[in-house]
Structure formats: structure tokens, C-alpha cells
Amino acid sequence: MDILKDLAAIVGTEFATQDPSVLSDYVSDLSFTEGSRPEAVVFPGKTEEVSSIVRWANEKNIPLIPVSSPIHLYGTTVPKQGGVIVNMKRFDEIYEIDKVNRLVRFGVGVSWEKLTAALKAEGMRVIMPLAPREERAVATDHLEREVTTSMVYDYGEPTQSMEVVFPNGDVFRTGSASAPKYPYSPARGANPAGPGLDFYRLLQCAQGTMGIVTWMSLKIQSIPLIDKIKFAPLDDLGEGISYLYRILPRRIGQECLILNRVDLAALLAEDTAEFEKMRGRLPEYTLILTISGLIRRPEEKIAYEEHFLEDVMKNEFPQIVLTDYLPGFPGADKKLMNILRTAWPKERPYWKSVPKGAYQDLFFITRPERVPEFIERMKHVAGEISYPFDEIGIYEQPIEHNRACQLQFTFYYDPDCEESADTVKSVWKKAFESMHDAGGYFTRPYGETAERLYDRAASYTAALKKVKALFDPNNVMNPGNLCF
Amino acid sequence: MSINKHAYQAIEAVVGRNYITDDPADCEGYRSGPGGYESGTGYERVMTKIAGAVVMPRTTEDVQKIVKICGRFGVPFVPYSTGFYGPRSHPHMEHELIIDMKRMRDFEIDEKHFFITVQPGVIYSQIQQECFEKGAYVVIGGGGAQTSAVANLLNDGWSPLSFRVGLPQRRILGMEVVMPDGEIVKMGSLADGDDPFWGEGIGPDLRGIMRGYTGLLGCLGICTRMAIKTLPFQPEIPKPSGISPETALQLDPKRVRWINFTMPSLESIEQAHIMIGNAEIGGAVTKVPVFWRAIAKAECKEDFWDLWLKETEESVSNFFLVRVLLIGYTSEEQMDYDYHVLCDIIEELGGKERRTKPSDESWFKNADSAGMWLMTGSYVSVDYVMDTFTQAFKQGPNYRDLKAKYTPPLMPDCKDLGWFQSCEMGHLGYYEYLIYWDQREDTNGMDQFYVESAKMNIENGCYPALLGAHQPLYLTGPAYGPGYHEWILGLKEVFDPQWICHPPLPLAHDEFVERAEWMHEVKNWETPEEFPYPEKLKENMRLEK
Fold this sequence. Notes:
The complex is a heterodimer. Chain A has helices spanning 3-11, 20-23, 47-60, 112-121, 138-143, 199-203, 237-247, 261-268, 272-281, 298-315, 332-341, 371-384, 418-437, 449-456, 458-471; strands spanning 16-17, 40-42, 64-67, 84-87, 94-98, 103-107, 124-125, 159-165, 171-173, 212-219, 221-222, 226-234, 256-260, 285-293, 358-366, 392-399, 404-413. Chain A folds into three domains: 3-87, Uridine Diphospho-n-acetylenolpyruvylglucosamine Reductase, domain 2, CATH 3.30.43.10; 94-222, Uridine Diphospho-n-acetylenolpyruvylglucosamine Reductase, domain 3, CATH 3.30.465.10; 226-437, FAD-linked oxidases, C-terminal domain (Vanillyl-alcohol Oxidase, Chain A, domain 3, 3-Layer(aba) Sandwich), CATH 3.40.462. Chain A is of the alpha+beta class. In chain A, 56% of the residues are buried. In chain A, strand 16 (392-399) and strand 17 form a beta hairpin. By secondary structure, chain B is α+β, with helices and mostly antiparallel strands. Chain B has three domains: 5-103, Uridine Diphospho-n-acetylenolpyruvylglucosamine Reductase, domain 2; 107-232, Uridine Diphospho-n-acetylenolpyruvylglucosamine Reductase, domain 3 (2-Layer Sandwich), CATH 3.30.465; 242-460, Vanillyl-alcohol Oxidase, Chain A, domain 3 (3-Layer(aba) Sandwich). Chain B is 31% helix and 19% strand. In chain B, the strands form five sheets. A seven-stranded antiparallel β-sheet of chain B has the order 17-14-16-15-20-21-19, with helices on one face. Chain B is globular. Chains A and B meet through helix 6, helix 10, helix 14 and helix 15 of A and strand 9, strand 11, helix 7, helix 11 and strand 19 of B.
């Protein structure tokens, strides 16, 4: 079997390779996941080519690993059983920005840098997770259900329609983009649901196991005319969380998050030395809230939100002090506002690289009121293996009016120090088990977490396997991930 | 009639003799119609049967045991909560068991995290009142507050209150489903514990197989527990007023107000929807069919016709009214802000505010159900879809023109364009088209219109709500996706290889077209020589013939 010849016949010789130096790029990512070397990398440029590759893989029984982004964080694209990397970077076109219907449709290879720049030129933006890398593919983050920093919209996620090549090679459009004649149809693809089933839900967090997405559309918003960022130092995290229970259901704010001093220093510092200085001076936790004046009467909108916040603080939460600046850190307000609304520039080291060079995240969904309990648990876990708790980043992201939140712990380490990496591996694993045992809900099973999560959710797992077997009977799509 | 007697005895042993019956009088009470959604159609006459027996389980374990017994004895069953969904929620086979979920009526509200966990016998009216008292509200679908919240959310679930969160499936959190093979599948955070607060995952989200834009009408299992998102409201509890059926909720105008605006044109109404959404204000924006005004004013059928017959095509086509709901979610000051922004927009578009009653007659609690049959006795929405306003405002003329060919038997509505509203802050434009007819007349044209509307949408490239089991699957399936029907049929085979869960859905409308002679003249799509039923179902269908 000549894999390269077969692939070249589909995409052309310049878009298929078995060059060892290229293959080695895919052996690892920013996680600890260990995998195998792929046998080839193919760069399709058209949906039909993706379809042909998938049909070929079924015929030859060769695993395919779809890759949309040049940066991967959780081991999902590291081959577990060899196979062919399907690199989607040539799908890098923004097909349309529809300002009337407030949607954007773009290829899965489009980066945050490209998309945000194009939207900004039109006075629009898309809600985003905290500081995604400029070069990371937007679609990857939304397919992975990354939680955004904006918590004011009831509809939560901005994902709309997608085009997918299913594991049998069929090309399919989800949601209202499934209409005949799309994109030249009255249906504009704004509705993610249907047809018949909610296919988009089966594709999200599937890590490429349910098919290869080629493009997607997202909701977009007008850029606010006025933004204000506010900070509240929190000595008592529980009090801060109670405050959020009070204000966020009243639809206050655009972005809202709580960071501990480690994560906030990492976000703001230019280098490791500054990080260390800032970490020592910042409060243990800081609540960050933006309020925005939208496209009409922006001052009045800011005013009613500020009046509400003042009333609540004065009458119910006198301990909370919300200021327009981060005390002791001049300029941090503007800097952080910019961080919340733009992707992380590729010229600068990523903020999570600032403390020690590398990191591992552990995140899950929970009720905000349980956050202090999980943090106490983390202290205990860290203490058990003598890992310094005060070096752990803590980030609480409220979701949809504080109905729930994502709690994220970040373990920073020196990638050049084997001992440091081993310690983080160890604390990460123990912390995962501890948080899971305590009821942390891990909706995104990566790497070795998957086995434990799916084992405990036996009925769900059995049903999911049945669905997978229907869509991908030969299990060619990214095998070795999730429970497949 | 009845069902297999061994199955009956086994089920009786599960629920007790008080909660199962095959008494013909009891079963007759579950007959589809004579009023209700989609009643009085050819589909109802041809496809629905009287139940062989009715059972009322109390727990998920009861449901699981019943389903397994049905599987063992090959007894077809259909889950049934309030029966609003007309013929499609009723038995389609002889000797079929109705599993009536009304005894499963527990609910629990989590006011702090804005969700409510319900069993399928719980209706919206109950939970809406609880929500009001806890500073929240739920979106009551157009089916009305008397419908089961679970059934409504699994199948439809829209109203003007969908402005803040449009897609009903976004409001479904953790859920528990007894699959047709009797296995219990827990979804969302329920999959990994007993807290249903979160809906996604683990990994790929299996809620995706429970419904699409619209639902599967109970042919892929029975939901026994569901957590539903509620939405933050404002603190003033709306007060009920009036004497049934003329009831309303009195609103505190400082915190909740419906405001009607007369607009100069249909285009200005479209613009108002778009601009209000873009300004991110309000709790609802809608333009309803003109004849709804007559329904609202009428106290009886005769009243309605007295009012409606005064309208003309000209008066209807020149009636431009947009209705906006403002909610002071944050404060009275926020309410003022929204009002000022709204007035700016309306003024720019040349509209004018009208005096509006400080009450809600329809949407927060009652929805529109009771009055919908007032005029002719029969009604159905042939489309209720969200895409964009680009699609929504194109569909109105399409439906109007097609309907003209089928009027009568459809009720003359002076060429009204239908119902438009804004969902998800204007990101989604909603369109609904309702038709009415008198079921005592020859209604073949109604059945034909229904299917012709699907063909029209395919031809025009529009995305309709009525896909899946709502239309012939082999008509819409090849057109949308394309080929979505293959996946539905595949899942049916995977989870219900015997096709005992509400057969012959999802192919019931295909079956109807084959069986109803008057449908043959509109059938111009391909179907397989034999539908892919299991042999046992084919045999049962042959026996029924």
C-alpha cells in the first residue's frame, strides 16, 4: 500500500507528505499525551477532497486524525494508533460576514487573528474564551466547547451551522444550512438545530471522532461604543461569589471572571520577573467585571448598570469594593480590557508560559457556590504531594448569569526540568481524581481522564458507543480518543 | 382490542391494577380529537387508532419495566403526557399501549442556579407560578401552559418569550431517558452523578439524538426526568385577574410592559425586529397574524366571525403592528433605558406607540392554546422555524400564495402573511404560518397543502420546522443535510430494532401518503419499494389491513 501515492492522487503531490520532519510535528502537543507518529500528513483544500480521503481511509482501514489548529492543548490530535493527519489549514477563508443577521461563516482553519481582524473592520466581534492564541483556529475552540468570558447572553454558545464530512465520506450540513441550495438559499444557516437530529451536538467535543468539520458559522455582536472594566479585590472568595449570585442574574456586565493572584499576574506580566513581583502584590483573588455601552445610548446603559452595582454594594455587600482600576497597578485596566477582547498576540509568549514556560490545565463545570470547597480540596491534594499551592493558577468563569461556572486550575512548570514536569503530572492526576470524586463535572474528557469519566457514566457510554458505531462503523476517525 | 394478555398481566404486576386499564371506555377517552392541534386531518383519520390499553407509571423504574415487558411481548407503545400534539402523539397501531406519564408529576426548583427539575407529568402552569415567586420565568411554548414541559421541550417549545434564548433545546439540561430497549440513559451531568444542573456531554452530547429543530414525537424513548433552564426575571410577581376563560396576568408597568406600535410598512416591522435585537433590549418582539386580534377580542365563535368578516385583504395587508415586551430585569432605570432605546428605533422607522393594556393575556402563563380552535375547530402550524429574518420575511409570501390554492377548505384569512418574531436577540428570525379548517368539510386539500408546503420549502431553499416525523421522511430526507433521514432511520434501528416505540414513526407520514388515496396525486418523490420495517412490524401491519 502506497499511502503517499494514494493521498497525492486526491489532493495533489504538494499537499501530501511523509517527510519525517513534518510527521514529527504531530507526535506531541502542549499536553502530556503520548502517542505515535502519523504515517502521513495530507492538506486537503476542498470538501470533496476531504470526502475522498475519508472514503479512502475506510477502504484501507487507516485512522484519520483531523487537525484544524496549529496549536493543540489536550492531546486530541496526537495519533494513538498511527494513521494520517488531515490538516485543515487550507480551509482558511472567511466566506461571509452578514451584519444584518449578525453571523460569520468561515473555514475551520481560520485563526482568531484573522477572524477578529475581519470582524473588527466591520464593527463586529465574536464572544471568545479567555485570551485564545492568535494562531489557534476559532473553530477548534468552539468545537471544543471552550467557555467564553461573556456570561450575559442567555443563549450561551454562539455556534450556528457547520459543514461536516461524516466518517462514511458523506458531506453534510447541519442546522438551517442543511437547506437545499445553501448558501444561495433564503436559509442563512443561523439555526444550529436539526435537520431531524441535533447533529451539531454530536460533533462538539467529539475530538474529530464523528467526522471532519470544514466550516462553521457563529453569532457575532456589534462592538460596544463604551467599555468599562472594574476590579474588586477579594479577601473572601465566598463573599465575591455571593456577590455574583446577586448581580449577574440581573444581567449586569459583558465579561466577568475571577482570577487568583497567580493567573492575574501571568496575564498582566511581561516576563517572569515581573510576574513574580506582581504575584506578591496582588490580592489573593480579583473579581473582574466589564460593563458596556452598546450601540444606542451607551452612556445611559453604563449609568444604570453602575447605579445598580453601587446600590447592591452599599446596601448588601459593603465589603465589596469595585473600582475602575486595579489598585497599585496603573494601566492594568486598559491592558486587561484589551486582553478580554482580543486574541493573544503570537509575538508574545503565551500568558501561561510566562510563569515557568509550560503548564497543564484542569477544568470542570460546577455550581459557583461549590468553588471554595473545590479550592480547599486542591489545597489538600497539593499538600499531600508537597506541591506549592500558592503556585497554582485559579480561574473561575461564571456562565449564563452565574447559573454555573467553569473552575480551572493551572499547574505551571519548567518544561526543561523533568522533575518539575513529573510533579505536575502527579498533582494533576491526583487533583483530577479528587475533583471528580467530589462531583466536579468534566464535560470534556481528554487523554487519561476519559477512561475514568466514561467508566463511571456507564449508560451514557454504552449509548454513545452505539451512536459512534452507526456513524463510524470502521472506527477510522481518530481512534483511541474518548471511549472509542 | 386490549394488548397481549400476558403483557397486560405483567405490567399490572408492576403498577398495580388501579393504574392500568383496557376498558374500552377509558381507552376511548384517549382518542385523538375531536379538538386539538392537528385534529380533523386525514392523517388523524387514517393513522390513529384507539389504544389497546393505558398504563400510568409512577417512577422511572416503572417505565423501564413496562418498556422491557413491551419489548418481550412485542407490544407497541407510545409515551403520552398531555396529548396536546394531536394525532401524532396517539397510537398508530392496533393493540398499542399508551404509557400515560401524568402520575409522574414531581418537580423541584433551584432558584439560585436557575433551573427546575421536572417529571413528564408536570405542566408549565405549575412551574411558571413557582418560577415567578422565585424571580424567574420559563418560556411557555405556543402549545399552552397546560402542556407537559418535558413533552413540549422535546418536540417544540417556542413563544415570543424565546427572544432571550430561542432554541428550546438550549433550555434542556440533565435528562434521564428510558430508551426503547429499556435501558436508562442519563445525559448531561446526570450521567456522572445525581445533579442535573448541566446539559452537555460527557464528550459528544447525546441530547443531540433526542430532537432536532423539532422533535421525534416519542419514537426514540421516554424521558422520565429533565432539568430545564429558567430565566432570571424581575421581582414583581404578576397577579392573575379575570374570570376564566377571560383571564390575564396584571403586570407592574415599571418592571414589565407590553407595548404595541403601529408601523408604516412590513419592511419597517422587519427593520424593527433587526434593530431591537442589535440594540440588545427587551424581552420579546413579535408581529402576530391579524386574525389573532379578532380571536383575542371574541368571546365565542360567532363573535370571531362577526369581527373577522369585517376585515378585507386591503385592511389586513395594511395593518402593521409590532408588539414589544420590555422587562426591567435589572431595575426600573434599566426599564427606562430600554424604553428610550425602543422609542428611538420606532421613531427612526416612522412608527407610533399605541395604548396597550398593562397585562399579559397569552405568553407568560396561558399561551395561545384555548383560543386557537375558536374559529373553525381545527388548526395546525405548517411552519414554525427559526433561521434569520432574511428567510422569515421571504416565507410569508410563499405560504400566502400556496395557501390561496387550497382555500377552501382552508379558512380564508385575507392573505395574512403569518407570524414573525425575534429570537436570541435578533440572531434568529422566527416565522410561523397557521392554517385553519372545518373538519366537517372535505379536508383532503388540507392534507395536500401540508405536504405541498414541504415541497415548496425544498424548491425555495427554505428551512422548515416540519422535518423528521412531521412530514414524509423520504420527501424531506434527501433534500436536507442532504440525507438526514438515513441517520434517523439508523438510530431507530440501533435503539429500537423492533420498532415498538410509537411505530411506524418516523415513517408515519410516509405511511399516510401511501394509504390515503387523495395523497397519491401530490406524491412525486421516490420511496423504497418497502419501508425498512422489521418483519414483525410488517406482519402486524398486514394483519391490520
